[in-house]
Amino acid sequence: MEILEAVKQLAGIETKEQDGVLQLMIEDASAAVRDYCNRKDCPPELAYVVREIVLDHYRLENEDPVASIKRGDTQISYQNTITKDQFTPRQRDAMCRYRLVKVI
Prior knowledge:
Blueprint: H1 3-11, H2 19-37, H3 47-60, E1 66-70, E2 75-78, H4 89-96
Antiparallel strand pairs: 1-2
């Protein structure tokens, strides 16, 4: 099952109304996971972590997730950005085995 569909199912979303915002959140969560793991890819084994991060942020912003919308060149932004600093200890533990050593 695709991450977007899984997030919608877990959040009880039945319409496509918030697909754009959710997809942006998925992309941000995947980027944060890649950043935390020092990787260029997001391992498929961490898809459940990405889902969990997106669901956590979706629930925080459930009342009014969209901060702004720009129509020319399409831009949708939501209020809280997803960063590696916001991971829970459980999420960090799950990602540890996929971390690569960062060479400076």
